[in-house]
Design brief:
Residues 371-391, 586-607 are annotated as: Disordered. By secondary structure, this protein is α+β, with helices and mostly antiparallel strands. Among the domains are: 7-131 and 170-210, Arfaptin homology (AH) domain/BAR domain (Substrate Binding Domain Of Dnak, Chain:A, Domain 2), CATH 1.20.1270; 260-375, Pleckstrin-homology domain (PH domain)/Phosphotyrosine-binding domain (PTB) (PH-domain like); 392-508, Orthogonal Bundle (Annexin V, domain 1), CATH 1.10.220; 524-577 and 695-804, Ankyrin repeat-containing domain (Serine Threonine Protein Phosphatase 5, Tetratricopeptide repeat), CATH 1.25.40. The chain has helices spanning 7-12, 15-69, 74-143, 149-246, 346-377, 392-396, 398-406, 435-444, 461-469, 472-479, 483-486, 496-508, 524-555, 557-561, 568-575, 595-598, 633-643, 646-654, 671-678, 681-689, 704-711, 714-722, 737-744, 747-766, 775-790, 797-804, and strands at residues 267-276, 284-292, 295-299, 307-310, 317-321, 329-333, 338-342, 424-426, 431-433, 451-453, 662-663, 669-670. The strands form three sheets. It has a seven-stranded antiparallel β-sheet. A three-stranded antiparallel β-sheet has the order 9-8-10. A two-stranded antiparallel sheet has the order 11-12. Strand 3 (295-299) and strand 4 (307-310) form a beta hairpin. Helix 21 packs antiparallel against helix 22 and helix 22 runs parallel beside helix 24 (747-766).
Amino acid sequence: MKMTVDFEECLKDSPRFRAALEEVEGDVAELELKLDKLVKLCIAMIDTGKAFCVANKQFMNGIRDLAQYSSNDAVVETSLTKFSDSLQEMINFHTILFDQTQRSIKAQLQNFVKEDLRKFKDAKKQFEKVSEEKENALVKNAQVQRNKQHEVEEATNILTATRKCFRHIALDYVLQINVLQSKRRSEILKSMLSFMYAHLAFFHQGYDLFSELGPYMKDLGAQLDRLVVDAAKEKREMEQKHSTIQQKDFSSDDSKLEYNVDAANGIVMEGYLFKRASNAFKTWNRRWFSIQNNQLVYQKKFKDSPTVVVEDLRLCTVKHCEDIERRFCFEVVSPTKSCMLQADSEKLRQAWIKAVQTSIATAYREKGDEAEKLDKKSSPSTGSLDSGNESKEKLLKGESALQRVQCIPGNSSCCDCGLADPRWASINLGITLCIECSGIHRSLGVHFSKVRSLTLDTWEPELLKLMCELGNDVINRVYEAKLDKMGIKKPQPGQRQEKEAYIRAKYVERKFVDKYSMASSPSEQEKRVISKSCEEQRLSQVRASVHTAVAAVNSDEARRESLFCPDELDSLFSYFDTSSKLRSIKSNDSGIQQGSDDGRESLPSTVSANSLYEPEGERQESSVFLDSKHLNPGLQLYRASYEKNLPKMAEALAHGADVNWANSDEDQATALIQAVLGGSLVTCEFLLQNGANVNQRDVQGRGPLHHATVLGHTGQVCLFLKRGANQHATDEEGKDPLSIAVEAANADIVTLLRLARMNEEMRESEGLYGQPGDETYQDIFRDFSQMASNNPEKLNRFQQDSQKF
């Protein structure tokens, strides 16, 4: 056994022993530095290896993504998947290698440094300390004087004890040195051998893996050689085809148009057209158009979802456009917009027009039978509009609207041509139309006629009642008053050109309206009497309503406070029947937002036969007011609105009345405000459908919503909020509708106003501008509309409750 430091020399504490200790201590210090460096390098190598594995795994995932992308190529997908699996195995082998390296190098060597070298250092500190104490004892013993016996004995005893302790600690130190020198070889060799075995296993696993992959790689290499040869052959064939096509003449492509280009997918025709934008600049953009599944759609890019121009081709018409500077233009007119298109040549324009017309006829034939079946399934209704036996859903059905509206006198045939069984209606005029006349009405623009289907569209209850208040007979007595005197006959079904000229002369130019049928104008004194009477009636209603509200508030102050209760919505839902799920509203319900009709383009139309209906020497009056000898149409509309007389209101509009005319003798009140004072929901709806401004206010700063709130007309409040009334507007006293309703303690109106305000804030916070709101909001307002139109007595709770106090 070889010892680094001899134990005998340790007892002697000779210079050889001290020299050996110095040499050993220097060697151990250098060993510690080397081991620390090796451990740090091992840690860095493991960290780098793990980063390599991460990068390698990302690379392998990229190969897998490429394999999935090449799913239509079986060879590429199979090979890439197999290679990625092999690389994943190699990553696993690398991970195992780094784990073993960490255990063999890092863990073992760090343990040796922390435990064995720490024991050596502790022993060294104790040896140095006792050596110093021994030297001090020797010096003290040598300095004691002979005649001081007591000090001599004390120094001798200390020296003896110190030498004994030194021998014991020195022997322990030498033992630790010899053990350390012996152990360090085994620890270092053991860790390195384990590290090398880990590499040996890693390379053996990799070799076995790729040995199994070798035959497949050879087969793939042979297949790749064939693919290179086939690719070169395909390249020559494509170059030959390219040269052949390049020599063809494409000058006559227009004559090669065919229909049913993709009949299996429902595509009748497709190709590029220029489309005029609806913005202020009227820019033209080239888009890919197609007629498919009874719809006209276009795309900017192939991956983009098609934009629908016409959802149902039965609802549109198509015509040439020769009144613009660009050539080969034609126009597709739908209920909501006018789409101006331009083809590349005259042949292409004719082909597109023919394709659209053919598709319109086909769509009408296909869906006409479906509408007939729906009509047969629905039972005939003979009850009144206010019947409470029918459900809300049935009142909104298109088939129910058809039956109810056609029961009105004159509505069983088209208002303009007399064709039987009309299924379309003009909601602002209150008439029924056949499909051909409805298309002509759409081309007039929504400021003249708003067309809606009696079978396909959803009908709000107030609109349904409006249609039943007017009808073809009532409107024709106004708009065809001079037809017999002029000796003009109505056009027959099928006479498209004559129909266009007749309808334009009837509704746009109003040539058949008897302008002198209105009563003579009352005197100024009579006007003042009438104005004063209307004003007194209005003020008496306001005072009665306010008095009732104040009485209710003074009787029970807690009732007003309850309006601010957080459980307000719960009480509202309990008032309605909410046992079933909330119904969903179709996103294309044009009755929810009147603004959907306001965004249409103007639909210009020229009629060559206009002169047919123009008497010699007569021209249409352009001024809103007639001659001073006749009644002011605006005043007639104003008075008829308060009297709830829709036929007189329609007559006033036919004579040119401004629907937003304000009466300067009665605080600048409008016809819509008079309709509110009159208490008629249908009258308000008629004025709104004909362009009345829902936010126009009188001199007191009060609009229709203010007056409806003061009078407690819940149905009107609901209608105005749906039509975009501004509930934040304040009157001259600084009160908005909500504060008025709170003071009057009208829980229903407060609830409606707060729901509308919360819905508005929610849409603004979420950026949902122009959208109707969530389903809860729509459902509550729909229930209020149903009650206001069909069961108005349920909304009189405020007046009934007030009388109890």
